[in-house]
Amino acid sequence: MDAFLHQALSGLATGSIYASLALALVMIYQATHLVNFSQGEMAMFSTYIAWFLIQVGCPYWVAFLGTIAVSFVLGGAIQHIIIGRFQDASILSVVVVFVGLLAIFNSLAGWLFSYSIKAFPSPFPKEMGNTYMSAHELGAIGVMLAVLSLLVVFFRYTPLGLAMRAAAQNPTSSRLVGIRVDWMLALGWGLAGAIGSVAGMMIAPVVFLDPNMMSGVLLYAFAAALLGGIDNPVGAVLGGLLVGVLENLLGAYVIGNELKLTVALAIIVGVLVVRPAGLLGSIHVSRV
Amino acid sequence: MVRTEGSVTLDGRRIDGLATEDIVRKGVAHVPEGRGTFANLTVEENLRLGAYTRRDNAEVQADFERVYSYFPRLKERRGQQAGTLSGGEQQMLSISRALMLRPQLLLLDEPSFGLSPIVVLEIFTIMQRINESDRITILLVEQNASMALDLADSAYLLESGRVVLGGSSNEMKKDDTVRRVYLGY
């Protein structure tokens, strides 16, 4: 029983990291109705920025906040400079751009920081842990919940959050009430970049830092976002936690560790077949 | 490509070529044909977006009450998703959202389109109040000539994009062609 509980709880911890990356996917999906395939590599690149800041002597939390800020600007700049040019292009062209960004960030990280695996510190003191969960696992869950709360408050209670939701839904009408839609899109990308960087800094102490560290994580994050509902931040977190626990339990007791990634694929296919809107995703009703 | 010429001025300043959101910020509110409400947001959120560019919060609050008094049905449905409203209610919401901007000029594109006569009458009555007591200039494009002429001070008749007749509404009503073709008597 103890072992089972341990597996489930540590699944919750990895799940919270999937949840963070899923949140980043939801940000861009909400703003542009596109799924950003380069989200994982952007997060990985951000983590290298954090690593670099720590190397040059910044205290962890300074590096943490600095990385979030840089990633926010980087995300907004990618939308403004690159993706914005493709707003009239077909979806396939944008997907190709995403794949291109993925390759660019991957190679850029390898070129700048080398492909050798690096250790990345966890900011949480060992004493925080208990028999079931390590300090870092608990900390990662806490950080993710904090990010989620901030987002919910932002979207539900601030005028800017409302304007972002409006711009995502109906750009034409948004312009008619004076919203600068391009800025809202850049803001969505900025938020995605910032949240992704948090996910990267939380996963790096577990999987170690290397340019390919996000490939598996991104797949789980896709599964999480789909399972929870790709347009709903709370759903994305719920999906992330579920995927993390399922993955861990199935890996430990049913299919073995080698086949774990299949769980993500099975979830993606299963959700799309059974309930495409996801658990909490909205099914839109309209009357004409 | 449609060939365009001439200019558009507001208070003597040219506004053609400006971005939509900048024209809005100069006080021009547009109620588009097809209403353009935010279907998945609530009635209240739609109205709040109408006041997005304003920073005078107390006044905005007063304007909420004002538009709710024009259209009490919107107040009843303030928490409902706009997409679930009837066509007439959506048109009311669209006009109310435009009013939340406190515009100098309100552009209305076929507000009677697809609505029942009784709802059209309700909306036109409110538009008269908006025009007279709130002193907001209205530019109305409308196929329902008799209602439009009753509401307007001056009118223009367009045929295939060309102004063929213009003048005060009373003169227009007396014009033989307008009477026969558009008013039907």
Question: Any overview of this molecule?
Answer:
The complex is a heterodimer of chains A (288) and B (185). With 288 residues, chain A is mostly helical. Chain A contains eleven helices and no strands. In chain A, α1 (2-32) packs antiparallel against α10 (233-254), α2 (39-55) runs parallel beside α4 and α9 (214-228) runs parallel beside α11. Chain A starts with a helix and ends in a 14-residue tail after the last helix. The mean pLDDT of chain A is 89. The longest helix of chain B is centred in the last third of the chain and has 16 residues, at 117-132. Helices cover 45% and strands 17% of the residues of chain B. Chain B is globular. Chain B has a single domain, classed as P-loop containing nucleotide triphosphate hydrolases (Rossmann fold). With 185 residues, chain B is an alpha/beta fold. At the A-B interface, α6 and α7 of A face α1 and α2 of B.
Put simply, the count of helices of chain B is 9
What is the structural class of chain B?
A: alpha/beta
Unreliable stretches of chain A, pLDDT < 50, 5 or more residues?
none
State the CATH superfamily name of chain B. P-loop containing nucleotide triphosphate hydrolases
Kindly provide the radius of gyration of chain A, computed on alpha-carbon positions and rounded to a whole number of angstroms.
19 Å
Q: What's the CATH class of chain B, please?
A: Alpha Beta
Q: Which fold name is given in CATH as the topology of chain B?
A: Rossmann fold
Number of helices of chain A: 11
Amino- and carboxy-terminal Cα gap of chain A: 55 Å
What is the overall shape of chain A? globular
Strand order of the largest sheet of chain B: 3-4-5
Let me know the average pLDDT of chain A: 89
* Largest sheet, strands/sense/barrel of chain B: 3 strands, parallel
Helix and strand run of chain A: HHHHHHHHHHH
Percent range for helical residues of chain A? over 70%
